[in-house]
Amino acid sequence: MLRVPTPLSDDLEKTVHNTIGCCITVHRTLGPGLREIIYSKAIAIELKAAGIAFEQESTFPVTYRGELLCEQRLDFVVDGKLILEIKAVEVIANVHHAQLLHYLRLSRLPVGLLINFNVAYLRDGIVRKVCEKNGLRASSSLRAFVVPAGL
To answer: Is the Cβ–Cβ distance between 59 and 77 less than 8 Å?
Structure first.
């Protein structure tokens, strides 16, 4: 397991690690070049086979000045604590990073994975972002960022 300084509990780190493992299994089997929906369906099968609790297409409210604007959908919420956002794009753009940051802030979940399956080696397509109370920190073998929880 990756050992970098982390504000996450060992249990949550294990969930992140196992979720990434499921995604690697899917990528090794299917390879790059397919649509996001195909990877999402395969990930659901893999998470279920691994006995990892998850919700697919989970929603949370988006409000503005106390008024409900809409419900936002997340690709996956794993174990009630981890956002898993799936992409199959040429390059993960800044807007994809911003999207995951907004999802973390709005959902108040502690950690998110942005995984791009359109890469030769999945490790090159994994971005991990962690939301904590004290501020923004980064650690990077998986291009990881820590975001203030209050933002």
So the answer is: no
